[in-house]
Amino acid sequence: MIRLLVLIGVLMSSTAWAGQQRLEPLSESVRTALTAAVADRAPPEPVFDSPLERARWLARMNAQLPQRSMPEYDHRVEFLRTLHYESQRAGLDPLLVLGLIQVESGFRRYAVSSAGARGLMQVMPFWARLISAEDPGVLFDLRANLRFGCVILRHYLDQERGDLFRALGRYNGSVGQTAYPEAVISAARRWGWSEVSPTTGPTTGPTTGPTKEPITRPAGLGL
């Protein structure tokens, strides 16, 4: 019961989650791959099976977005289109990324945590300097923030060999603890995500013929 109340409080909070992605040593090959992954600036056009599917997905997700955080319709559509593209590009399920953003920032583009993480996906400033040599202010840009956040989560998933629970812990700087991964998974389910949703595709570029990877999690957590 206490855990449930904690999760509800996290999901309803208007403050950014005060996590701390940690600066860990990266091999030169990993650093080069991450740099390449954030560098592409192709137009963010998400891929759907049909125009009808695209319209239905945008309408359904738009109806669930909190208008207090994103009051302008055009901004919500731009956000959803960009999120879908960047999620696909990194081989992530867009619904999982929506859940992560709900927990991290409550969909507030200019959110800053007490640890200094920035924007929708609460990216720590050191990432901008480490893999793109850009001013951390770029993390308040909609597309840049989604690009960095998705690439970083993909990196952690690869690092943890598909273990979503541990990858989420690394993203938040709380690996080994349960509160943050449980909160993200709970929020993602509200958007329609399920554990059978695959994480797909390469780390370093757009997906071309995605391949499924298993998502693993600790047993006995009641998720």
Could you walk me through the main structural features you see in this protein, from its secondary elements to its overall organization?
With 223 residues, the protein is an all-alpha fold. The chain has a single domain (2-205), classed as Lysozyme (Orthogonal Bundle), CATH 1.10.530.10. The protein contains nine helices and two strands. The longest helix is centred in the middle third of the chain and has 18 residues, at 73-90. The radius of gyration is 16 Å and the shape is globular. 36% of the residues are buried.
CATH fold call:
Lysozyme
Write down the overall geometry.
globular
Query: What is the architecture at the second tier of CATH?
Result: Orthogonal Bundle
Number of domains: 1
CATH hierarchy class name: Mainly Alpha
The major β-sheet equals: 2 strands, antiparallel
Low-confidence sequence ranges: 1-15, 198-223
List the helices and strands and how they pair.
Elements: H1 2-12, H2 28-39, H3 51-64, H4 73-90, H5 94-105, H6 125-131, H7 142-159, H8 164-172, H9 179-190, E1 199-200, E2 212-213
Antiparallel strand pairs: 1-2
Any key phrases for this structure?
globular, two-stranded antiparallel ribbon, 9 helices, 51% helix, mainly alpha, disordered C terminus, 223 residues, Lysozyme
Overview in brief:
With 223 residues, the protein is mainly alpha-helical.
